[in-house]
Amino acid sequence: IDAIGHVATEGGAATRASPDADRIGDEVLRTEGGLAARRGEIVGLSGLAGHGQAEALARLYLSRSGRRADAAAPRACFVAGDRGRDGVLPLWSILRNATLTALPALSRRGMVDRAAEATLGADWKRRIGIRTDDMDNPILSPSGGNQQKVLFARALASSAPIVVMDDPMRGVDVGTKREAYQMIRAEAEAGRTFLWYSTETEEVSQCDRVFVYRNGRISAELTGAEITEERILSASFEMEGDAR
Q1: What Rg do the C-alpha atoms of the chain give, in angstroms?
Q2: Helix, strand, coil share (%) of the chain residues, nearest 5
Q3: Residue 81 lies in a domain
Q4: 29 and 93 belong to one structural domain
Q5: How far apart are CA 44 and CA 47, in angstroms?
Q6: What's the predicted TM-score (pTM) here?
Q7: Would residue 80 count as lying in a domain?
Q8: Name one GO molecular function term (predicted).
Q9: Structural domain of residue 9, as residue ranges?
Q10: Per residue in 160-182, pLDDT tens?
Q11: DSSP assignment of 162-231, as one string?
């Protein structure tokens, strides 16, 4: 089913990351629509594209951002899949795009500590593997995969405990995807919660729990070994009244 976007690994099938029960903590959010997540959990939103997943993430993110107090102590951060529309700031440098969310913490009396910003940028360049000779280069100068790494750095450089990701691997190469999977898992182990919309089975298989959407509503909640392409497809096509 092309709308699901099945992507297999080199072994021929998507591999599931093993959930770590000790990593996952108390519930940190629950929406009226039934979407829920725990501390340190990687939660996937799946199903056929255009069935309300992106809208659910947008509502969640907007409900936890936008207040003035959130600038210094953000409750959620966002990683966009559409870099051109929702992600990069094209007139700014790689460094400033990466450190944007951390600027309040790097500022004193309204002035940004440039040395501290450069140090933070260098740290994330190393940690996330941004390939560039100079972080002061324009954001559009590196490859699309490296631009996406900058967006991850921007989100993770903040102190936000919840990371909202709207199809963040769109258009990036396999190597970048694998690096991102490792980074997401490491951040989850440190206590961050991820909500990840994707239509690709390989990406959904990285999640601890998956909510399948159909017609704007959750049609199934899958965990552990239940997270398979067959179960996702079944929930995506269930007739109204048969779900759950």
Answers
A1: 18
A2: 40, 20, 45
A3: no
A4: no
A5: 10
A6: 0.83
A7: no
A8: ATP binding
A9: 1-75+160-244
A10: 999 999 998 887 888 888 888 99
A11: EEEEESTTTT--HHHHHHHHHHHHHHHHTT-EEEEE-S-HHHHTT-SEEEEEETTEEEEEEEGGG--HHH
